[in-house]
Prior knowledge:
homodimer; 256 residues; alpha/beta; D-Maltodextrin-Binding Protein, domain 2; disordered N terminus
Amino acid sequence: xTYRIFHxxxxxxxxxxxxxxxxxxxxxxxxxxxxxxxxxxxxxISGALTIGASTTIAEYMLPALLGEFKNQYxxxxxxxxxxxxxxxxxxxxxxxxxxxxxxxxxxxxxxxVEVCHDDHLVVVTAPNHELARRGTRVKPAELIQYPFVCRxxxxxxxxxxxxxxxxxxxxxxxxxxxxxxxxxxxxxxxxETDMGISILSRSTIVKELKLNTLAELQLDPSLSRPFSFVRxxxxxxxxxxxxxxxxxxxxxQRQK
Amino acid sequence: xTYRIFHxxxxxxxxxxxxxxxxxxxxxxxxxxxxxxxxxxxxxISGALTIGASTTIAEYMLPALLGEFKNQYxxxxxxxxxxxxxxxxxxxxxxxxxxxxxxxxxxxxxxxVEVCHDDHLVVVTAPNHELARRGTRVKPAELIQYPFVCRxxxxxxxxxxxxxxxxxxxxxxxxxxxxxxxxxxxxxxxxETDMGISILSRSTIVKELKLNTLAELQLDPSLSRPFSFVRxxxxxxxxxxxxxxxxxxxxxQRQK
Lengths: 256, 256
């Protein structure tokens, strides 16, 4: 709301402010609606879209999807903000981004949440690590024997791992967390230098597997998590956003 | 200040609060000093350190450095927060992290800034891009002919590129920015799918050059930037932090 008011260059407080703010909101919505209906008539798809995604999705899955989308609609301006799942959901809530894509379950009832495809998680080690040489599936209880490099609190990956351990009767407090790193890329670097092992989305280690700087092992039972699209319920849906959602859903279907 | 008060579980406001807060600060500093002098006597190096680094440094340079450091001092707990340069400087200011390492120049006079080694930036394209096939050095004025994928405002890399263009008499507004992406990893993905070209730290594309999914071209004149260590002037320096700084400086020297 404040965001839209700032467009007018006005700063207003209290009840009067709220009323003006409400009208301004309606005026801008109408303006957007008008723009969209003009575009519908002319068939033009343009404008700006700000997407936010949690790191794993933003760095390893979105570039290809956005590339295809941009090829189809060259006139749109795309912006991608990267944060952890918690940060992205907060950006959707505060209207900083039009669409969020996150790895963690989202429970906020004011937001529309749509589940996309499943992401597969694996144990990652240095190639010469004891587990990699052994080469069988890894039981969750075995994880506590090794120094473990983990993501920070608020990371979707971290939450999924903690829940998995609890579900498998392993106490997360028994894990030998040796380092906490704020991005999957930094985490991979730490595992490559054999500081510890970790659990990561398989999509993030494709290059390292090719270069043989990391090894992967399956978990037993296996672990996967859904990706979710998150957006505001009340938000006026611009045409370009509809197109992106449809495009993304089709993309997800193809990945299955 | 607030951070230390929270250790006591007390929330205090106004003048009285300020005084208590000052005393609490001094008590905690003395406590830390005591701990350190005990450690000095016993020769033990342990404790927790929270480091923050801008993405390029955190993801491509720090893991190796932190790995060596952790090998030498296995009892310390390391945490690494990742943000852009602007975000990291703000974390140092607000005492969220003990030490920041950033790519952009820092001008805040309340912070101690020490320059480390120089990072080399190159033009990055898809392997089959016109520029890659031509293979000569790239003049800054040539950049405006191609769609350009860039980092967000507040990114150190973006600031350095903008300043370079201005210094070379190229108007940054003439650049054909086609997409704005919030991390170097996402940006590489976009260049790999040939959405545009970009300028990146050479240290971030080592794996892609090996896999031949990206090509690099030198700029003419060349472009580099210093990395800076940033920390609070007033902060009591714990022993483990002294060790890390010394270690990092030695590491930087070796990279030269």
